[in-house]
Structure formats: structure tokens, C-alpha cells
Recover the amino acids of this structure.
């Protein structure tokens, strides 16, 4: 079976993790601090705070912005439930907006119409590794949290995703670009926000009491993530190479794939194609030994039983994700293409 996602580990990854185990310092320590410095330097942002997950990063970011009861947070409907959970964690009201039909990213015009006097933040995911219209959304004057769970290494007009919003978050879950098992990160150039987040991620040994969290990353996770970060250029290059092969075939066959606007790099965390019957496509690909999935399990408006999100609905009805990861072999890429063309055409 060709899996949908696959962790890519090598000897150096094992060596770094074993070194942490041998040191006896397993919890948050100097290795975590080192990872914070490395990620901040890579994205070209001043500060970084490592946490236990991408969801924890979103939660603390919203808290740092003062988001709570009476606040509204704008999020796209076509996204995983982590965003919805984080908004509910702080007691705010999620305001769902539709997406762009060409890129699957949050739609700027929908965002503009959703802004009210209660809007405290906009969360902008760069879906599947393709940067959103981040400059236009930042220009609206509402604090923006960039969700870079899919997009570490992607560029918008020369700058890395994660360097545009007042805050940005990253995920190091096992299937992500830097799959350290679990873990997340918050980045910002605002020291006050960063100090608030550092205070909130750990509850122990404090002179005063307030509700804080156990959102620390371990040195084990940080060691693995730091090792993977060294190979990120290779990961990006190989994904681009595979995507180029997919693009040439699917475009030539008239199969709909995301449009990559000018001045944006798509790093292809997911490779998404359009099918008239995603469930049939997934089943037929599985029969051929290829695991595919819906790239978003269910849009948020369906969970909340809301209507009025036609593009997100259409994406859910048609989008499927086929395997793309650095360790895919040439013959596996050919097998995926042959099977997909047979089913889609």
C-alpha cells in the first residue's frame, strides 16, 4: 500500500533523539530553546515560543490578543476543527467565511464582509502549502494569526509564510512537513505578546496565580524537529519535483488542480485534485493499493449546521488528496498517476 502520508526519518534523526534520551533531560530544556531560535531565524521573525501542539499555539495566540467572551474571530469554513476548537476554548464566537475556488484559501471579500466592531482576530491558514492573500488581509487592520501548519518554507512575494501576521503558528504533528510526532510553535515580532504566551504555556513555580496551561514541548520532540529542519530544503525540492510531474499530467488531461498565483511558492504539503465523486475515487484508489483522503474531513459549516458557504461546500464535494512526500519512489509516482487518470477520466 502506498500510504497517504509517510514520516521521513534518517540516521541523524535517531542519533539526535538518542542523545536526548542519554542526557536524561527529556522535558523542556535547552534543545527546545535551540529549536525556537532556529525556527525564528529561518522564518526571519524575532521571537518564537515552542508549545505542545498547533492547537495549543492557536489557543495561546488568541489569549495573548485578549480574545474572549464577546469577541469574534474570523476563520474559513474549509479547514480542520483545530481552529474552531481554539476559538471556543477562549469563549469567543467563530465567524465562518467562504474560500477562494482556485486556491482553497480564505476569501478576502468574504473576510471584509464579516468584520464587525467585535472582530478581535482573523486566523488565516495557508491551505495545503499554498500562501493565502496575506498582504490584503493584514491591510484590513485586524490582528492576523497566520496558520502555517501546512506551509513552513512557503514564500509569499519573497517572504516566508509566518512573517506577515502579528502572530503565526506552526504544527509539528507526525504528518506535517516537520513531523516530530507532536509539537507546535508561535512566532511574533511583538515581545509583549511573546512574553504573555511564554507565561501561559507553563503553570509551575509562579509567584502569583492565574489560569495557565501545561503546553510545553519536550526536548525529545525538539531534537527530532531540529534535525528535520536541516533537511527541509530537500523535502521542499522533492515535493516540488513530484508536484511538477503531477501538474504536467493533470493539466494536460484537463483535471482541476489549485491555481498558484504569481509571487507565491506552493510547497505541496498536500496535492489536491478535483473529482466528481471523492468517495468513489478514494475507494478505487485503495483497491489499487494507493491511500487517498479528503484533504479536509468536513467543513466547519457542516459541523455547525450552517448554510451559505457554496465554495467550501463544493470543495468538500469534489476535493481529494493524493500521496505526495519526499520518500515516494519514481515507480510509485507513476502508479499513482496511472491510477488517478484511469478513475478521473
Amino acid at each position: 500500500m502506498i500510504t497517504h502520508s509517510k514520516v521521513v526519518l534518517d540516521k541523524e534523526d535517531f542519533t539526535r533523539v538518542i542523545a536526548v534520551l542519554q542526557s536524561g533531560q527529556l522535558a523542556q530544556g535547552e534543545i527546545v530553546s535551540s529549536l525556537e531560535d532556529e525556527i525564528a531565524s529561518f522564518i526571519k521573525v524575532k521571537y518564537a515560543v515552542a508549545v505542545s501542539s498547533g492547537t495549543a499555539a492557536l489557543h495561546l495566540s488568541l489569549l495573548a490578543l485578549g480574545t474572549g467572551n464577546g469577541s469574534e474571530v474570523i476563520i474559513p469554513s474549509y479547514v480542520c476543527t483545530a481552529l474552531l476548537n481554539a476559538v471556543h476554548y477562549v469563549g469567543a464566537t467563530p465567524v465562518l467565511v467562504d474560500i477562494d475556488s482556485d486556491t482553497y484559501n480564505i476569501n478576502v471579500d468574504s473576510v471584509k464582509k464579516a468584520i464587525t466592531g467585535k472582530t478581535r482576530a482573523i486566523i488565516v491558514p495557508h491551505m495545503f502549502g499554498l500562501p493565502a492573500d496575506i498582504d490584503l488581509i493584514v491591510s484590513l487592520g485586524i490582528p492576523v494569526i497566520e496558520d502555517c501548519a501546512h506551509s513552513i518554507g512557503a514564500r509569499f512575494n519573497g517572504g516566508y509564510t509566518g512573517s506577515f501576521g502579528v502572530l503565526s503558528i506552526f504544527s509539528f504533528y507526525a504528518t506535517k512537513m516537520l513531523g516530530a510526532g507532536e509539537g507546535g510553535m508561535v512566532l511574533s515580532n511583538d515581545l509583549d505578546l511573546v512574553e504573555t504566551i511564554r507565561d501561559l504555556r507553563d503553570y509551575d513555580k509562579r509567584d502569583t496565580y492565574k489560569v495557565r496551561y501545561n503546553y510545553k514541548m519536550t526536548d525529545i520532540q525538539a531534537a527530532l524537529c531540529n534535525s528535520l529542519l536541516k533537511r527541509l530544503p530537500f523535502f521542499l525540492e522533492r515535493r516540488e519535483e513530484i508536484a511538477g510531474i503531477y501538474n504536467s499530467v493533470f493539466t494536460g488531461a484537463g483535471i482541476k488542480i489549485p491555481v498558484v498565483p504569481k509571487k507565491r511558492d506552493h510547497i505541496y504539503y498536500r496535492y489536491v485534485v478535483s473529482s466528481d465523486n471523492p468517495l468513489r475515487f478514494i475507494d478505487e484508489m485503495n483497491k489499487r493499493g494507493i491511500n487517498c483522503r479528503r484533504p479536509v474531513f468536513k467543513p466547519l459549516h457542516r459541523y455547525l449546521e450552517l448554510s451559505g458557504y457554496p465554495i467550501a461546500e463544493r470543495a468538500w464535494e469534489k476535493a481529494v488528496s493524493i500521496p505526495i512526500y519526499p520518500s515516494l519512489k519514481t515507480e510509485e509516482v507513476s502508479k499513482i498517476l496511472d491510477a488517478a487518470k484511469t478513475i478521473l477520466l
